[in-house]
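Folds abound. Consider this:
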Amino acid sequence: MENEIYREALIDLFENAKNRGEMANPDLKSHVVNQLCGDEVSLYLKLKGDKVESAMFSGDGCLLSQVSTSLLTSHIESLQL
């Protein structure tokens, strides 16, 4: 039962990922590929002074790589560098 709740939560986060898409004119962009499994993620950041004003991501990969990147972008917005 507990595993099912986690599974449903992960699927919901995957299907409703926040900040998914490519950012026009990012201040910083990084693209990484996991050579073992083939997951790909691009991370885009827009900076304002010494803070992350907005963060977005795009990519293809497993549910966990996509959900974790979505959560990362949500948590680093407004982060001071």
Q: What stands out?
A: Helices lie at 2-15, 63-76. The beta strands are 28-33, 40-48, 51-60.
